[in-house]
Amino acid sequence: MFPELNNLLNTTPDRAEQGKLTLLCDAKTDGSFLVHHFLSFYLRANCKVCFVALIQSFSHYNIVGQKLGVSLTTARERGQLVLLEGLKSSVDVFFRAQEEPHPLQFLREANAETLQPLYEFVQEALKPVDSEEAVWRYPVLLVDDLSVLLSLGVGAVAVLDFVHYCRATVCWKLKGSMVALVHDTGDAEDEENDILLNGLSHQSHLILRAEGLVTGFCRDVHGQLTILWRRPLQPTAQREQSLTYQYKIQDKNVSFFARGMSPAVL
Amino acid sequence: MAAVETCGTGAGGTGFMAAATSKNNVTGFQRKGPRAGGTDSSGSRLVSIAGTRPSVRNGQLLVSTGLPALDQLLGGGLAVGTVLLIEEDKYNIYSPLLFKYFLAEGIISRHTLLVASAKEDPADILQELPAPFLDDNCKKEFDEDTCNHKTPEPNIEMKIAWRYQLLPKMEAGPVSSSRFGHYYDVSKRIPQELLEASKWHGFFLPEKLSLSLKVEHCSLTHGYLKLLNFIQSIIYEEGFDGSNPQKKQKNILRIGIQNLGSPLWGDDICCTENCNNSHSLTKFLYVLRGLLRTSLSACVITVPSHLIQNKAVIARVTNLSDTVVGLESFIGSEKETNPLYKDYHGLIHIRQIPRLNNLTCDVSDVKDLGFKLKRKQFTIEH
């Protein structure tokens, strides 16, 4: 987790809010550093995390996680982290016939109508186990990322249904939180992706949007992050609040600064 | 803690775990620990494979693309387990060259090759590979001791004109596998004995399609499905994914797929904007990447992206690949007469570089890169 981002979001692992859907969005840049942030943040906050990792392999997240101070293998062994590794499982699903429905069953189907097996996997992973004591604070679902599901033949509506079901279970019933990453394709006219993005933007409480700089590539400023708070939980708070910062990604940390205030410029 | 230690000793890397549970860690990627190194290090558990080296930045195992200038732009080379997507130039003149460089490098480094094409017979493609530059004195010798041969090849004019001018003059030593990245002479063909000594598998779509007409599940185009099954069977049978632990010498599988997405593969994304099988290519890429991540292989794919009319598909294909390089040739375009581009045949765009095991990635500072094909070589310049 990046301490500066925690300050900007005004949270710490101890005081993290529950029942929230956070949307991570990236346009013309790679927003995966946000995924690493939230993964390590919730692991540090002692939450039970179900991570649907569709884009990269487990070792990738593990190695970056170690740089950020959490060990995914330890978390997995302790039962704190349940991980679905998309790339590895896709090979299993695709080449070997499965007896029972696999979470990635839609890979074998021509037109995947529903993501129900995936939802059931999440439900199974995060349901409170009676035998163990209440060690973990609350469950968290993290998905990286949802846009790839569109590339794999799932319709935008099916993905939105999946998110809705997960929200109902994770956020409302189990009082946990949910974080998902969606790519914003911008001018690529990807209608399905736009439907997904707009639908999720309306439902989320917090939107973090990483964009490349309008002026192009820069060595010292890698992009711009816009934080948008929607649906505040307290009715007395402001309606919507939006802040924009620029960031630079380093080896173990991401530094944030106000627009135009990069250390390289000053 | 015990768990952290097991992470440190060679189990790191982007997802290198065999699909079947195997006791020994067949890792394609090795954390750059105190014992890891490019040369044979007796202490490390993974014997170093010929023609590879670990990345300086994050300990990834890299293979050369066959073009040292491109290696440098990609941060040292192509990471094992990843896909390099080459967006073809309009008339498909220069992208086959990059494709052949990749395959030739595999032959010189004694990697196993898998060549797939719907247009040309893989045997013909292999016949046309460029020959490596060899120093005349050392042509007969095949010993590994290359460090003594410091005679630079005089007619190599590798001009890399930005400030990394201190690219060392590579010794064009004997054809030994301990070097990383070789130079090739495009005007000559690869010697026949090298081809015969190499191990390769070919996938020529017209041959494979005629064998069976059984319609399979899922929405993949028939050609893609056959190719995926072929790749998976080669990986499994030859033990690239660690499933045959008795294999004594680990090797890399270099996969080259030509013109993926063209109508010759049975896919219609290049034909219409609203196609029926719009997910065929993307699903193929996803499962291919899954196969690559769990095996010691690297893949180069050329895609005629200028023919794909649906921009969303191009964006999705880019997101699903690790490294994306685009070639834009000046033939027939207005840039041909532009004096700025007088010496070059085209531009090369590095569109995407993966962030593997890292928050950052090796983005080169130089963004305007042109290429030109001289009589003997393909060079990339600033």
Automatic annotation (TrEMBL), chain A:
<dbReference type="GO" id="GO:0005634">
    <property type="term" value="C:nucleus"/>
</dbReference>
<comment type="pathway">
    <text>tRNA modification; 5-methoxycarbonylmethyl-2-thiouridine-tRNA biosynthesis.</text>
</comment>
<dbReference type="InterPro" id="IPR027417">
    <property type="entry name" value="P-loop_NTPase"/>
</dbReference>
<dbReference type="GO" id="GO:0005737">
    <property type="term" value="C:cytoplasm"/>
</dbReference>
<keyword id="KW-0819">tRNA processing</keyword>
<protein>
    <recommendedName>
        <fullName>Elongator complex protein 6</fullName>
    </recommendedName>
</protein>
<keyword id="KW-0963">Cytoplasm</keyword>
<dbReference type="Pfam" id="PF09807">
    <property type="entry name" value="ELP6"/>
</dbReference>
<keyword id="KW-0539">Nucleus</keyword>
<comment type="similarity">
    <text>Belongs to the ELP6 family.</text>
</comment>
<dbReference type="InterPro" id="IPR018627">
    <property type="entry name" value="ELP6"/>
</dbReference>
<dbReference type="GO" id="GO:0033588">
    <property type="term" value="C:elongator holoenzyme complex"/>
</dbReference>
<dbReference type="GO" id="GO:0002098">
    <property type="term" value="P:tRNA wobble uridine modification"/>
</dbReference>
<comment type="subunit">
    <text>Component of the elongator complex which consists of ELP1, ELP2, ELP3, ELP4, ELP5 and ELP6.</text>
</comment>
<comment type="function">
    <text>Component of the elongator complex which is required for multiple tRNA modifications, including mcm5U (5-methoxycarbonylmethyl uridine), mcm5s2U (5-methoxycarbonylmethyl-2-thiouridine), and ncm5U (5-carbamoylmethyl uridine). The elongator complex catalyzes formation of carboxymethyluridine in the wobble base at position 34 in tRNAs. Involved in cell migration.</text>
</comment>
UniProtKB/TrEMBL annotation, chain B:
<dbReference type="Pfam" id="PF05625">
    <property type="entry name" value="PAXNEB"/>
</dbReference>
<dbReference type="GO" id="GO:0008023">
    <property type="term" value="C:transcription elongation factor complex"/>
</dbReference>
<dbReference type="GO" id="GO:0005737">
    <property type="term" value="C:cytoplasm"/>
</dbReference>
<comment type="pathway">
    <text>tRNA modification; 5-methoxycarbonylmethyl-2-thiouridine-tRNA biosynthesis.</text>
</comment>
<dbReference type="InterPro" id="IPR027417">
    <property type="entry name" value="P-loop_NTPase"/>
</dbReference>
<keyword id="KW-0963">Cytoplasm</keyword>
<comment type="similarity">
    <text>Belongs to the ELP4 family.</text>
</comment>
<comment type="subunit">
    <text>Component of the elongator complex which consists of ELP1, ELP2, ELP3, ELP4, ELP5 and ELP6.</text>
</comment>
<comment type="function">
    <text>Component of the elongator complex which is required for multiple tRNA modifications, including mcm5U (5-methoxycarbonylmethyl uridine), mcm5s2U (5-methoxycarbonylmethyl-2-thiouridine), and ncm5U (5-carbamoylmethyl uridine). The elongator complex catalyzes the formation of carboxymethyluridine in the wobble base at position 34 in tRNAs.</text>
</comment>
<protein>
    <recommendedName>
        <fullName>Elongator complex protein 4</fullName>
    </recommendedName>
</protein>
<keyword id="KW-0539">Nucleus</keyword>
<dbReference type="GO" id="GO:0033588">
    <property type="term" value="C:elongator holoenzyme complex"/>
</dbReference>
<dbReference type="InterPro" id="IPR008728">
    <property type="entry name" value="Elongator_complex_protein_4"/>
</dbReference>
<keyword id="KW-0819">tRNA processing</keyword>
<dbReference type="GO" id="GO:0002098">
    <property type="term" value="P:tRNA wobble uridine modification"/>
</dbReference>
